[in-house]
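Project standup — Tuesday

K.O.: blocked on the structure for the chain from last sprint. Re-posting the sequence here as requested.
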Amino acid sequence: MKIRVSAVQYHLHTIRSFEEFASQCEHYIKTAQEFRSEFVLFPEFFTTQLLSIGSEQGTSLTINELPGFTEQYKKLFSNFAKQTNMHIIGGTHVINRDGRLYNAAHLFYPDGRIEEQAKLHITPTEVHEWNMSPGEGLRVFDTEKGRIAILTCYDIEFPEIVRMAKAKGADVIFCPSCTDDRHGFHRVRYTSHARAIENQVYVVVTGTIGSLPTVDFMRANFGQAAVITPNDIPFPPKGIMVEGELNDDMIVTADLDLSLLYEVRERGSVTTWRDRRTDLYVDWEKENIEG
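H.V.: unblocked you, prediction finished:
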């Protein structure tokens, strides 16, 4: 089975209305639709662009006010998914649940369903500057094209959580990201490669570009989209199926052949998933079955 995926290098810039945000998102959605994509990935924190609108009094909006856009955001992306028959990973959006802020990824199904995966590992900035809370559990999502997981930015830097996603049957990890400099970008990029090799899965990653001069901690962005594969003979030698141009406003698209994953897991040059030493460390596959 093949899955066609697109990943958006979303350009952050100051806007004046929700309608401007919607128009920009529609541009990327229509581009992916023209490429006949089945899944579209937006980056982490791309909805912070809405804070640049400001208040009616002309004052700046803060992260605490971003959840106020949640219903508009959900309606917009749910309509996109239904109209295009695509699965849309709508980046992440900050939600308020029981008085606590969560950085939550949203999966919009073509049939109107909306699922969430809150970010599980949150950065010092998210903790100390934005007072966010971590998600409390890993989910995997069944689609008509296979099982996927959504792990946001910092999450991909923790091998245990991706092991758990693979043990639960995920073949594709979607990683919406937001990094403000080369150091953060390369942390996410290098560990995405590691996770693809360790678990013999695809990783689709993307990030924000541009800047929001009036939004704290979103003034600098360094991003690039990529579709990352295991490093074995059926795949490109560098484990990169496609990647965008650094910090350019664009979208990248690739076909993921799931049968190649099954092939290398059985008889690849290395069989990293099968060769785990579960006598020495946790067998997440067994834990999943028994749980």
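K.O.: great, moving the ticket to review. The chain has a mean pLDDT of 96. The longest helix spans residues 182-199.
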